[in-house]
Design brief:
By secondary structure, the protein is of the alpha/beta class. It is built from 14 helices and ten strands. Strands 1, 2, 3, 4, 5, 6, 7, 8, 9 and 10 form a ten-stranded mixed beta sheet that branches. Strand 1, helix 3 and strand 2 form a beta-alpha-beta unit.
């Protein structure tokens, strides 16, 4: 009896194990897409990239080393620092229309340029979800249809020198920056594409009036690097700028702190995309996968001073957390359907012209910086 009972138990266990193994076999994923990319990248051996100028040529040696250690692929990364994104995008679209071989395999753009490039058909459509490393958060991809790996982010903040402006006195809204006591001590970026987004969220009349009042108060206007330089030499005490410039100022020993303006925090995601027809598509994908991972985020933070909202442990992540805690609106360009639609409209183009005219008309001759 005991023997027969044991036999029945053994047979039952065998059946159960068989069912489990069969189910397990059926659930096995398709061949690892990343493995195929790695093998393809080994054959290609090189990749051309256009990335933020803040990386610098010297950081590519470190990137090559880290990719080699992580994936076992020895890549020669040929790096070109990006200039104005709008110009680089225009070149890429022209190449695509002419059927020319892309100048670069992998290109970095802000989210609104990714939207434009995707609509122009210049990027290869990649199943990035199948390629991302397991430790990369799912939020690290721009949503469909753009679906590009986010490699860095910046938040628009008010940077200030606490030796010049006390924590209690620092302005908290755009309108407070127009206070006469800050006359000539404020810096504001003058990118039409960015202020058009603010107009969309705040309302055009309110956004335009705020800029006019700040400029009328003698604010310095220019690009991000222009504002940073003026801040470093003490000519301005505050600047509406990208979060990474706070780290730059601090690294140079200049006192710098930040606040999130209560009007809005624009969270600008920078992403990379593989050009359609790239010479080295697998190597490009591998670099993209690494840069989007936590290890790649650490590399970017330490070399280019850019953080990543989606990965804890950096300023950009902290800013968004704090803004949400204070119930300040946080605006993600490629994740807001309202802006995605707006970005392809004639209104967007018209508003950018109006922003440019606003800066030209209301800025003093001393404060103007041609862009």
């Amino acid at each position: 009896m005991f023997t027969r009972k044991c036999a029945r138990i053994g047979w039952s266990l065998t059946l159960i194990l068989g069912v489990v193994l069969a189910a397990s076999a059926a659930a096995q994923p398709a061949p690892d897409a990343l493995v195929k990319v790695i093998e393809g990248a080994k054959k290609e051996g090189t990749v051309t990239v256009i990335l933020s100028p803040e990386y610098g040529e010297e950081s590519m040696t470190r990137l090559e080393k880290e990719i080699r250690e992580r994936f076992g692929v020895a890549l020669a990364i040929k790096y070109t620092p990006s200039g104005r994104m709008s110009k680089a995008l225009a070149t890429a679209i022209m190449e695509h229309k002419m059927g020319a071989t892309p100048s670069y395999d992998l290109e970095y753009y802000s989210a609104n340029n990714i939207i434009t490039g995707n609509r122009a058909g210049i990027f290869e459509q990649v199943d990035w979800k199948a390629l991302m490393t397991k430790d990369t958060p799912p939020e690290g991809l721009l949503p469909a249809p753009f679906n590009a790996p986010v490699t860095s982010t910046t938040d628009m903040i008010l940077m200030y020198n606490p030796d010049k402006v006390s924590d209690d006195a620092v302005p908290r809204t755009l309108s407070e920056l127009a206070d006469p006591k800050w006359k000539g001590k404020v810096g504001v970026y003058n990118y039409p594409s960015k202020w058009s987004k603010w107009w969309l969220i705040l309302g055009k009349d309110k956004g335009q009036a705020a800029i006019q009042a700040i400029l009328k108060n003698g604010a310095f206007q220019g690009g991000f690097s222009d504002l940073a330089n003026r801040f470093l030499i003490g000519e301005i005490w505050m600047a509406i700028t990208q979060s990474n410039y706070l780290l730059v100022a601090q690294s140079k020993g200049v006192p710098a702190k930040w606040v999130a303006l209560r009007d809005l925090v624009e969270a600008d995601e920078g992403a990379v995309a593989v050009r359609k027809g790239a010479k080295n598509p697998n190597a490009a994908k591998l670099v993209a996968v690494y840069l989007a991972s936590p290890a790649g985020s650490k590399f970017t933070l330490e070399t280019a001073k850019y953080g990543n909202i989606h990965i804890p442990g950096n300023l950009d992540h902290d800013i968004v957390v704090e803004a949400k805690k204070q119930q300040i609106p946080v605006f993600f360009v490629a994740r807001d359907p309202k802006f995605v639609e707006f970005a392809s409209s004639k209104k967007y183009q018209d508003w950018m012209k109006e922003v440019r005219l606003t800066f030209e008309t209301w800025g003093s001759s001393k404060s103007k910086k041609k862009k």
